[in-house]
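S., here's the first fold you wanted:
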Amino acid sequence: MDKLETISIALIKTTINDLITNKKHFSNSNIWAFMLEREIVNESFEKWVHYIFRLIEDNVDKLYTIYSKEIKDIIGLIRLHNISKNSCKAEVITLIFEHMQRKGYGVEAKKILIEHAFKDLNLNRLEFYIDQNNTNSIKSIMKLGATYEGTLKNHIQFNDGYIRSSRIYSILKS
């Protein structure tokens, strides 16, 4: 599907041109603070874009731009990552621009993507790896009824010395 939508937002299949054209939206390094790919982005936004689209070409990722119908602009990205057709699962990654956070857009975008993943892509399990310090994302995923499965302590160490522990949540097809 190229477009999934509700009354207030649309998830639109993202192209390389969409990302490059809207680079200004991604220049705020604060939105990348909790993301696993933050070092790639900090090194080169274009490098990150090409990395993502290699994954899309390999059919292991799907990337959607989150578009607000109210403000008529993009407000973030949502992605199915590491899609496994054999085990019928994928990871969900959401990036909402800082000025649009805590307004319910992340929850709404996840709801749309979850329905699409279970209904149209026939996935059975969605996983969410959330930095233990990202309380907004944890609250967001709990609103969707996700199950907390545990914490990967000292999961990743970034070049700046920050050591991330990731809380793992899942939502299963009912």
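And the second, which I think is the more interesting of the pair:
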Amino acid sequence: MEVQRDQGTVDRGRLLMAKRPAAGRSTVEGGAAPRHARLVAGALTPPVATAGGPVHAPADAVALWAPLTATRETARRARGAMGTRVLLLTTAHNEARFVDALFDGVMSQTRRPDRWIVVDDGSSDGTFEALAGRAARVDWITVLRREPVVHRVPDRLAVAAVSRSLNHALARIDWRAYTHIGKLDADVRVPPGFLEQLLRDFEADPSLGMTGGLLTERHGRRWRRVTQPPTHAPPPARLYSLECFEASGGFRERLAWDTIDEVYSRMLGYSTRVNAAVRVRHLRVHGTADGRLRGRARHGACAWIAHYPPLFVLLRSAKVAVRFTPWGLSGLAFLWGYLAAGLRGVPRVDDAEFRCYVRRELCARIVASLRAATRIGEQA
């Protein structure tokens, strides 16, 4: 078993943990910086892998990826020549109780990923041991163990622990050798046709940049779908095309990264959406890993970072207050997270085009909701 850790490699038998790139070769050949076509305010630089691991530009750095040497169509032809290859990434922190469901879902895929990398981020509940046990003798699964990204922080997600662990995985593989990159949370169970159907969606729509399965969560004895905009690719079970992943900036190590990359994808002309026919079971209510109210406050802070306008935030707070427990307090926590982020001066996406684009989208959603409510009222 070969177990990779930050400090080195420990041989423990037959469990295959994927090898790091050969000496002198990194995820980006020779440790060179990735290709950039233009700089756009507000998008952080994507991970640049070196022999020592991922290196990131300062938080105020601005870069939006786009290949210099190939148009999107050229990239698609190249992808067709190499054949579809899927890299799946998962991060886990104290998720031992979900490991069996996670593995059962992935192992049941009618179209399995070509490589699956699971990063245990310093768990203390036996998660790593559970992951290693399930991955034994499966040569396309890599299990990495690293020390916690941030120690003694109440809300790990607020300090981008997930995206840091994802970049930790990317730094140990030639991820540009894959045509699609998937991000799967450790607390989900995907149906057997998850990857197969999403890959069909990419084949059918050349403009598709990212998609995902519709989340369902258990409430009492029933599984209910999570309400969301049709253009939102759920981050717990999301699949990117390689071109879109690069163009939208990769995994930014900041709060709201999985909203920012989705917006930039649409700004660049990619379509983003959820496949409502692919139902993914989310085994824990979204945003509650570090506490329900803390999670709602974190979502409010994300709204601040992404330039959500105050009117939308007020309406969203009211909606959260009546849809999620604890009733009322959830909405107040969301609103407080937004206001507190503003009072603390949390940096927002520093891009005027991004701000205008987000606000146009949200205003359109408000208008559409009002029109739908008017039609319902007229029919009543």
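Why I say that: Residues 112 and 319 are 38 Å apart (CA to CA). Confidence is low (pLDDT under 50) at residues 7-70.

Talk tomorrow,
H.
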